[in-house]
Amino acid sequence: MMTVTRYKICRTVQVLTLMLSLTGCAITRSNAVKEEPPWHSISEFRDQRYAEVADPWEGFNRGMYRFNFYFDKFVFLPVVSSYEFVTPDFVEERISGIFNNLGEVRNLTNSMFQLKGVESATTLGRFLTNSTLGLGGMFDPATKFGMARHNQDFGKTLGYWGASSGPYLVLPIFGPSSLRDTGGIAVDSGISYGLYSAIDPFGNSSNAMALDAGVTALGGVDARHQQSFRYYESGYPFEYNMVRFIYHEQREIEIGKPRIEEVE
Amino acid sequence: MFMRLLLIASLVLSSLPAFAADDDYGYPIPGSFEATILGTPPALMQEFPEKMRVRQLVLDVIPGRYKPPVFFYDEGLRCTFAYQKQKAPLVFLIAGAGASDQSAKLWSMMQGLYKAGFHVITLPSPTHANFIISASKSGVPGELTEDAADLYHAMEVAWKEVQGEIEVSSFHLGGYSLGAAQSAFVAKLDEERHVFDFRKVLMINPPVSLYSSVTRIEDLLKQIPGGPKKQGIFFNKMLSKFSAFYRAGNFVAINDDFLYAIYSEQLFSQPETAGLIGLTYRINLAGMIFASDVMTNGGYVVPKNKVLRSTDSLTDYFLVSTHLSFFEYFNEYFYPYFAQRRPGLTKEAFIRSLSLKSIEGYLKTSPKFGVMANENDFILTKPELEYLRQLFGERIKVYPRGGHLGNLEYKDNMAYMVNFFKE
């Protein structure tokens, strides 16, 4: 036992030393050749900056972006592909429908928080129609009846009442977000957790825990299945910037906020 | 879906009357810029196969290639491969400037050909970062002969990879825009190398001279108030307009309905539309400049010897690279690179070499070529289009409209393309 522990400590020290020496190497090597200023630099720039988003935690965010790329590659997407492989398209669409219909609860609470009467009525109508005629959301007759889906969440509600987006934030697994929208996700999950516990659909089952976990996992897989975005797929060197800009701008526009330039 | 159809229908109807009479070509969008931006309304596309046997190839084209940490995600050249069960001809397709192997246009061409029973392999443009990082020997794309050599090599590697899985009866080649010009040079190289012996080569909306065509695109940016160096102000202004339009209308989300509304209510004026096309092109070009500069350690926009890491901010490089005109890039980076390697190369001679004219003898006589062009393609001057007509005679099909690539996915065009390879 003793020896094993000692061996382990030795190993750890060894690995650490090796790692340190490697980093040392990397640093010396990059410093060995002197950097020279480029032909064109930002100093000659006499124009407005554009496609920009406040991103003080860019180093962290880029690290997370990279983490998500690997998480997708080694964990998430293989699971999603197996799911897609074993599940017929028809069933996949019904499952997506069920989860999207449950999402109407979030849309409804938030359009109510924003005091949007017509929109709330539409969303409620959608939820009732699709839950009944649409067999629990498996089908979407509401859209055919002219009730369009309005995606809402608590991040948008905060924005609607004037909260600014705050810094850009890339969340693990969830992906692009902002400080405000992250808070929104927390509140929305809190609300659905509360509703879920109150209704307690698997309360009578002896495997309630396992069923709950299964439903949550299926929801995650379905969400990734519905989302076609793949990290670094564009191959464009400034993809991070573009994704950040488009995420931010689309949120702000859909919340209905005037841009700073317009206010001035 | 219904709303979308309605909008497309109104779009089509509103522009039809002016044109229904004077020809029997059904592509609806008359303006060159509008067609370029909007492409083909989905209702006017051909029907595509629901399921394709398709997968992405990731190829190690240059073994042992050093990839800087900032491009850690680049694992090899990405090509898309669609394959039939039975023996069939294989078509290689080359993307337009800055486009990847899965650009929407390539994807449509691939679907059209797949449906008609072809195997297809698509390649990214040599100007796309993925190609620069993984498949360009020099790391400096745009020289047609060298691009052709890189492309040819990539095709050989791709073919080797899939050779065991499919039966091929003959090889074909096609490309759009810059990819069309490159196809001509690849075909010429194939006459010496004979790896594929391409039976047919299709060029869709090719430029004649790269320099001249890029000049035409750069000219679009002159329509921005204050000129191209004020594109940031222009961008922010256009974005505000976009945002205000959204707020004023009763839109549910930024989706196709919203985008068609922008077109049908003419939110952007003609010069603004031109400016937006020019800006898109600049943003595209920036990716090429940056990737090339990093790969060659050229010290052009990134400090020489700087090792960028995966977590470093690239925002300033983005802003600098998008503000560079093609002429700056050409005079300061591109031409000097080749002048250094080919003593005595004048700028004029270099520009002449970047043109179909430099291989016109071959193009004039080879029966394997076909060309699809548009009367109002803004990357061509009138004399250039006339030149293509003279050069290709019966082998060229010129459509009355479609802008640059706007009608590529229109069903008649797709049918023409498929027939060309079938003959």
Describe the structure concisely for a colleague.
The complex is a heterodimer of chains A (264) and B (423). Chain A has 264 residues and is mainly α. Chain A is built from 10 helices and 2 strands; from the N terminus they run ααααααββαααα.
Shape of chain A: globular
Regions with little confidence, pLDDT below 50 for 5+ residues of chain A: 1-10, 15-30
Structural class of chain A: mainly alpha
Rg estimate of chain B, integer Å: 22 Å
Output the CATH homologous superfamily of the largest domain in chain B: Alpha/Beta hydrolase fold, catalytic domain
Order of helices and strands of chain A: HHHHHHEEHHHH
Q: Any idea how many domains of chain A?
A: 1
Low-confidence spans of chain B: pLDDT under 50, at least 5 residues?
A: 1-21
The portion of residues assigned to helices of chain B is: 40-55%
* Percent range for β-strand residues of chain B: 5-15%
Instruction: Report the sheet with the most strands of chain B, covering strand number, pairing sense and barrel closure.
Output: 8 strands, mixed
Number of helices of chain B: 17
Polypeptide structure, described:
The complex is a heterodimer of chains A (264) and B (423). Chain A is mainly alpha-helical. Chain A has one domain. Chain A has helices spanning 2-32, 58-86, 89-113, 117-132, 141-144, 154-160, 179-199, 208-226, 239-255, 260-263, and strands at 168-171, 175-178. In chain A, a hairpin with a 3-residue loop joins β1 and β2 (175-178). With 423 residues, chain B is an alpha/beta fold. Chain B has 2 domains: 43-209 and 355-422, 3-Layer(aba) Sandwich (Rossmann fold); 214-348, no CATH class. Chain B has an 8-stranded mixed β-sheet, with helices on both faces. Chain B starts with a helix and ends with a helix. The interface between A and B is large, with 53 and 62 residues.
